[in-house]
Amino acid sequence: MTTAEIIESFHSYKEETLKGRYITQKDIQPLITQWATKLDVEQLGVSENKLPIHLIKIGTGTKKLLFWSQMHGNESTTTKALFDLFHFLDDSANKLSEKILKECTLYIIPMLNPDGALAYTRVNYNGIDLNRDAQNLEESESKIFKAVVYNVKPLVAFNLHGQRTIFSAGNTTNSAIVSFLSPASNNERTITESRKKGMRIIAEMNKALQTAIPNCVGRYDDGFNINCTGDTMEYNGYTTILFEAGHHPNDYEREVTRKWMYLSLITALKFIAETGLSIENYEAYFDIPENGKLFKDIIIRNYPINGEKFDVALQYQETLVDKNLRFIPIVAQIETQIIENGHIEFNCDLDKVEISNVIEKQEIETKIDYLSINDEKFSVFPIKK
Ligand SMILES: [Zn+2]
């Protein structure tokens, strides 16, 4: 299967019942029940507020691979992509799926932090960031995770996350639609044999992604923090890859990025199944630019305030309102000139713009009620352009 064919296959394998950003345990439970008739499903335990955490096992190969998603509750894009992947792997007519399942056994925790998912928070029920609890292991979710690592002893570990809209692929005007990291295993950030394997797989995924979203892939800084799960995994000798699903233009629901995660996962599996863990040309990892923070959701240029012109940046705050996710625009910055790029920009020299409650520079960090562009009033966000 070529990269183009994998991309093409997305629509036939997509799990249609999952969509949008707010994905909870209740959303995935019916799917877990369905897949339990075909796949090996185990309840590992419960979260701090007693929601179930599951492990799904698929494949019969000797290469053991571990995946976990929604360790941060509000990072759901990779969870959607995992359920898409199940349909891909389940197709017995698909030669690549057959090869992957023969070579590999996949151990998948689709939602490690179901309490955070329900509350749409990064942290768990006790307000703890599970990705900083790798040493303390105080939380139920961390203990459950550690036991799985101990039992599986994965050849490669896939640490699946989502990132905010602020990131650019390098210091460019391209959004970092997908980002990766091969985490360090010590303060010196030594390029160990284990990391070379991870870097090689990331380089392979980057090559595939470049055909679809050129110059929109970034990599994270590899500063070492032993409290982070990926760093602890590498410290313990497990090749680990951090995935970050990011912002594709106009795709606040992350339904397009979901496809790029699907492509990345299958590309990595194809590489591992077909070529093992070759490290040849792992240096291509360093061709991926390091992420910058060069984006705001909306920038309005040359906005008149008290007879002067200012650039105004708005940033969406993702908030649950009556169990629905809302994007609330907040005034993030008012400056003479804002150097970042807006995913959407307006220029008051060309367009007639009114921001509901920006009258003075003191309006920073306040929520806005509406935005009026050439007399068209927008009070439902995100807006598209
Ligand atoms: Zn995360």
Key structural traits:
385 residues; alpha/beta; Aminopeptidase; Urease, subunit C, domain 1; 2 domains; 8-stranded mixed β-sheet; 4-stranded mixed β-sheet; globular; binds zinc ion
User: How many beta-strand runs?
Assistant: 15
Main-sheet strand order equals 1-2-4-3-5-8-6-7
Order of secondary-structure elements: HHEEEHHEHHEEHEHEHEEEEEEE
What percentage of the residues does DSSP assign to strands (E)?
25-35%
C-alpha-based Rg, rounded: 22 Å
Assign the CATH topology of the largest domain. Answer: Aminopeptidase
Q: State the shape.
A: globular
Give the rounded overall mean pLDDT: 97
Number of domains: 2
Q: Given the helix and strand composition, which structural class is it?
A: alpha/beta
CATH class of the largest domain: Alpha Beta
Indicate the percent of residues in helices: 25-40%
Helical element count?
9
Bound molecules: zinc ion
CATH architecture assignment name of the largest domain: 3-Layer(aba) Sandwich
Say which CATH homologous superfamily of the largest domain is assigned.
Zn peptidases
Low-pLDDT runs: none
N→C terminal distance: 36 Å
- What about the largest sheet? 8 strands, mixed
Care to describe what's here?
The strands form 3 sheets. Strands 1-2-4-3-5-8-6-7 form an 8-stranded mixed β-sheet, sandwiched between helices. The protein contains 9 helices and 15 strands. The protein starts with a helix and ends in a 7-residue tail after the last strand. It has helices spanning 3-13, 25-35, 77-90, 95-103, 114-119, 140-152, 193-212, 229-235, 257-275, and strands at residues 40-46, 52-59, 63-68, 104-109, 156-162, 178-181, 217-219, 239-245, 295-305, 308-321, 324-335, 341-347, 353-355, 371-373, 376-378. The relative contact order is 0.13. Strand 10 (308-321) and strand 11 (324-335) form a beta hairpin. It is globular, with a radius of gyration of 22 Å. The chain folds into 2 domains: 3-287, Aminopeptidase (3-Layer(aba) Sandwich); 295-378, Urease, subunit C, domain 1 (Roll). The chain has 385 residues and is an alpha/beta fold. The mean pLDDT is 97. Bound molecules: zinc ion. Residues 72, 75, 161 line the site of zinc ion (ZN).
